[in-house]
């Protein structure tokens, strides 16, 4: 997986280097091709670019003319690049510049915080032994690309209060493109004198083909610094210090990411980096537990007994399926029992408890890290602004009824309660329908497992005899489990495609009011779909497979006797090893497929679109043409990045008791994921519109819910899927010499072959007539007992021990979790003090400013009055 992605990155780098001329040639061609972020006058900055192809459609032409006219009325300045100036001779580019008056007006409307005084609050003290972290640190100008300031929401009537040295550079490019996009999203495209609420916003113009693309420009090419007169080369610095794979051991330049892409993308990479750091400790502990399983390999008495020809070789087991499956010897499961011991040992219990506490520490420490970022990035009071001000254009268009907002006392659109209920009911019904479809697919896979196992058993005469096949050992259980897992993974990928469309459709139908509400609703729906889709097969193997089998005289069948498919038994090595197989295939397959999608697809698409109809090197094209051929970063682009990581988080927490190496695999994947995402954002995508976010949104609540559920699932896995509890009961209750000798015989019940129903009996050519009894995995009374084939006392002892283990483990972990959460405050004390200090200083500065302003007004009024008196006296 890593090699694949690295090769794709290397190929792209090789292609780029191949078309790079020397520095002097590039500089000359830049000037000729217009590789600049300014209008033709070289003064006005390009804040946004719209592109279109004139296909002589009169409706589209009319929409464009009306839209451009309305943009100019608002105050935006436009400049069009004719198609004759573009290299493909087809595309027009409409460049947009927002002058100072427009920026000031909308910065006031959006309450954008801007600096008014340099901060005099000192930074935190230096960390002891800082020299140890020096190899992992980046230059100071990259880590802190700008000074710290006190900020305050912009007020157009108080421009002298803010630090405005140059109006052209006062608002950074990320803020400028955010303001322009806000205007574009609400600007109508109907002609003067007509009103049509549906004809509003750039999103509709993009969807109906009036414009092909709308995007802000990157500030330079990622492999080369911009000229000095073109401003900063932030994209180049991000690529050099962040996006290259060889920087994987370096810290992330979060402040520069935030400055260039906005807080929303910055908070994602901050969370991903912190999650990866915390995975390091879980991976180390999981590796230790796995190493313990390897080192205790020779002390596994149960596996020795199974492999012993005198013990396991003399035990005849009952058939595992009807007709096609023969009686078999227990020692044929020798390899499976040794493999199971690697993951099913005493260390696994400790690791499951550790992961329950690790999850809590991760979430609590992230809250503290998030609070620190909120303060550093000036996001402490942002959510209220988002809720009150940034209403979605779609909500304004579709909701025709209006009412007075109780907070702002202004008229605003609203959705009636009856309409809300109807839309919610339809949405809930659709969600349940699709979840039912997932369950139906899982039942289909289970039916496949039951039917195909018999087919494999008929091919391999001894179903548990190891057969050399393409250099590997294979059994019907392994073949069935692997093929079913692959089929399940393919179904997951197919259903995901449809789920994304359905989730977006029903969320649009609900018409959320704000962007935050829209994202939260979509997040909950998509995660619910993905949760059932990805985890249902693991839940089946962990908690249902092998639990409702019955016994040779009374087997249980899928859907009663309708299907004649006998419920599936666990692998002879136990269900835990099958859960491990399922987890590895789905988790690794998802990560491999995700890396292919993230790295290879954008690379190939950009290569094709940039080479289609072109015959010149990259430097011959203008800045807007270079960005135009890149992939568009959609509004939901970041949503899928979060979803991928949260699904991974579920795999390493919900089922980690079955596979302690899962955090290690996740760690390797995330180290690569950070750099692939960085490379993709920097080189393969257009510059996204900067947007703000103070936290990771609804994902925080989802992580909390997964953390709580993980304690329960791991407790049940250790109790009902693992063989640890039966072993402990035997060791401390039933064993006379306090050893595991005899455990295998104790864990197998006896059945009289003559009592097996003919429909369950193997075909005669596979039947040994000298065998009178067979063994099966259960705790039941033997033939001839007063309560023949009923559960014996050992079963009830083990069941009581399992329930006690679940209760004790859950309570211990939950008590520790809540105690740790109580001990660790969500906001660090120094951050609380800094917030209070900054608010106090801001109020003081505002007070002084207002006093000085009042004095100046009074002084001006007094001087004016004196002049008037003097003039009156003179006239008299």
From TrEMBL:
It comes from the Eukaryota. It is found in: Cell membrane; Membrane. Residues 257-838 form the Anoctamin transmembrane domain. One of its GO terms (cellular component) is plasma membrane. Residues 1-19 form the signal peptide. Keywords: Cell membrane, Glycoprotein, Membrane, Signal, Transmembrane, Transmembrane helix. Residues 38-254 form the Anoctamin dimerisation domain. InterPro entries: Anoct_dimer, Anoctamin, Anoctamin_TM. GO terms for molecular function: chloride channel activity; protein dimerization activity. The chain crosses the membrane at residues 268-295, 347-366, 431-456, 476-499, 526-543, 646-668, 702-721, 803-824. It is a multi-pass membrane protein. Belongs to the anoctamin family. This is Anoctamin. It comes from Oryzias sinensis. The lineage of its organism: Eukaryota, Metazoa, Chordata, Craniata, Vertebrata.
């Amino acid at each position: 997986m890593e090699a694949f992605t690295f090769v794709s990155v290397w190929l792209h780098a090789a292609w780029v280097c191949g078309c790079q001329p020397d520095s002097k040639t590039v500089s000359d061609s830049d000037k000729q091709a217009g590789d600049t972020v300014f209008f033709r006058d070289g003064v006005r900055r390009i804040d946004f670019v719209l592109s279109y192809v004139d296909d002589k459609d009169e409706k589209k032409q009319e929409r464009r003319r009306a839209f451009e006219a309305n943009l100019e009325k608002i105050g935006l300045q436009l400049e069009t690049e004719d198609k004759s100036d573009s290299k493909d001779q087809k595309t027009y580019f409409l460049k947009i510049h927002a002058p100072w008056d427009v920026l000031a007006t909308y910065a006031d409307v959006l309450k954008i915080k801007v600096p008014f005084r340099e901060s005099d609050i000192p930074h935190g003290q230096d960390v002891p032994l800082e020299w140890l972290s020096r190899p992992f640190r980046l230059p100071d100008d990259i880590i802190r690309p700008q000074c710290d300031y006190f900020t305050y929401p912009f007020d157009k009537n108080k421009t002298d209060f803010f630090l405005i040295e140059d109006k052209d550079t006062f608002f950074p490019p990320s803020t400028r493109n955010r303001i322009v996009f806000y205007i574009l999203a609400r600007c109508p495209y109907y002609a003067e004198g007509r009103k049509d609420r549906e004809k509003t916003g750039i999103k509709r113009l993009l969807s109906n083909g009036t414009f092909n693309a709308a995007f802000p420009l990157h500030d330079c090419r990622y492999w080369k610094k911009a000229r000095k007169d073109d401003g900063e080369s932030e994209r180049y610095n991000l690529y050099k210090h962040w996006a290259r794979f060889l920087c994987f051991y370096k810290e992330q330049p979060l402040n520069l990411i935030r400055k260039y892409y906005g807080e929303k993308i910055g908070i994602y990479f901050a969370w991903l980096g912190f999650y990866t750091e915390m995975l390091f400790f879980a991976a180390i502990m999981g590796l230790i537990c796995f190493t313990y399983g390897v080192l205790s390999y020779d002390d596994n008495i149960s596996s020795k007994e199974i492999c012993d020809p005198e013990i396991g070789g003399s035990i005849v087991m009952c058939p595992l399926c009807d007709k096609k499956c023969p009686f078999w010897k227990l020692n044929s499961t020798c390899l499976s029992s040794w493999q199971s011991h690697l993951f099913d040992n005493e260390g696994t219990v400790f690791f499951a408890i550790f992961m329950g506490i690790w999850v809590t520490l991760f979430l609590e420490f992230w809250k503290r890290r998030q609070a620190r970022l909120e303060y550093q990035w000036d996001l402490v009071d942002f959510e209220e602004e988002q809720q009150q001000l940034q209403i979605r254009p779609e909500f304004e268009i579709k909701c025709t009824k209006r009412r007075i907002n109780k907070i702002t006392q202004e008229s605003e659109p609203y959705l009636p309660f009856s309409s809300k209920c109807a839309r919610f009911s339809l949405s809930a019904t659709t969600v349940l329908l699709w979840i039912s479809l997932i369950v139906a697919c899982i039942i289909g896979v289970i039916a496949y497992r039951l039917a195909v196992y018999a087919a494999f058993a008929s091919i391999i005469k001894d179903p548990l005899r190891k057969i050399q096949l393409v250099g590997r050992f294979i059994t019907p259980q392994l073949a069935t489990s692997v093929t079913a897992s692959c089929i399940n993974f393919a179904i997951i990928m197919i259903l995901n495609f449809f789920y994304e469309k359905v989730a977006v459709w029903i969320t649009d139908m609900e018409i959320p009011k704000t962007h935050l509400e829209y994202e939260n609703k979509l997040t909950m729906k998509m995660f619910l779909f993905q949760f059932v889709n990805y985890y249902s097969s693991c839940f089946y193997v962990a908690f249902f497979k092998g639990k409702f089998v019955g016994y040779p005289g009374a087997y249980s069948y899928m859907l009663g006797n309708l299907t004649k498919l006998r419920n599936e038994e666990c692998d002879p090595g136990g269900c835990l090893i099958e859960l491990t197989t399922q987890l590895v295939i789905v988790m690794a397959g998802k990560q491999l497929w995700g890396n292919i999608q993230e790295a290879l697809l954008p690379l190939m698409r950009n290569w094709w679109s940039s080479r289609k109809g072109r015959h010149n090197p990259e430097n011959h094209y203008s800045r807007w043409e270079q960005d135009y051929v890149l992939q568009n970063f959609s509004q939901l682009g970041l949503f899928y990045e979060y979803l991928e990581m949260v699904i991974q988080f579920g795999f390493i927490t919900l089922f980690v008791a079955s596979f302690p190496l899962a955090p290690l695999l996740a760690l390797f994947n995330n180290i690569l994921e950070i750099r692939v995402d960085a490379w993709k954002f920097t080189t393969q995508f257009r510059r996204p519109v900067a947007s703000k976010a103070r936290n990771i949104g609804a994902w925080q609540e989802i992580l909390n819910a997964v953390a709580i559920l993980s304690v329960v699932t791991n407790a049940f896995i250790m109790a009902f899927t693992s063989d640890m509890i039966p072993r402990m009961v035997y060791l401390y209750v039933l064993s006379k010499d306090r050893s595991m000798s005899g455990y295998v015989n104790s864990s197998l019940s006896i059945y009289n072959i003559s009592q097996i129903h003919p429909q369950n009996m193997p075909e005669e050519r596979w039947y040994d007539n000298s065998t009178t009894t067979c063994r099966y995995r259960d705790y039941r009374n033997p033939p001839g007992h007063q309560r023949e084939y009923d559960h014996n006392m050992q079963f009830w002892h083990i069941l009581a021990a399992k329930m006690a283990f679940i209760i004790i483990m859950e309570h211990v972990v939950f008590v520790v979790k809540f105690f740790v959460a109580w001990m660790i405050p969500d906001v660090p004390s120094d951050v609380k003090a800094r917030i209070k200090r900054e608010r106090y200083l801001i109020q003081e500065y505002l007070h002084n400013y207002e006093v000085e302003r009042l004095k100046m007004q009074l002084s001006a009024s007094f001087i004016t009055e004196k002049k008037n008196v003097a003039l009156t006296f003179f006239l008299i």
